[in-house]
Write a structure and sequence with these properties.
Number of helices: 1
Structural class: alpha+beta
Number of strands: 4
Helix content: 10-25%
Largest sheet: 4 strands, antiparallel
Radius of gyration: 12 Å
Strand order of the largest sheet: 1-2-3-4
Order of helices and strands: EEEEH
Distance between the termini: 35 Å
Shape: flat
Amino acid sequence: MSPSPSGGPTHAPPTTELTFRKSSYSSASQDCVEVADLPGEHLVRDTQNRALGTLGFAGPEWSAALGAIRTDQV
């Protein structure tokens, strides 16, 4: 289990059983992250370093993170 940003453990299935997609916030070069959507949780991993694991975000945490990213992109 990987810790979530709030400190609690996630209960996601092994990453080999998940479907990850490239984030629309990734650049065309090397700044790539992938996201897997689960009921009530979103997992994020580095495309270049998948073996390092994932970060899990609960729904409200994910919404806040995306809001911060969108604000920073303007």
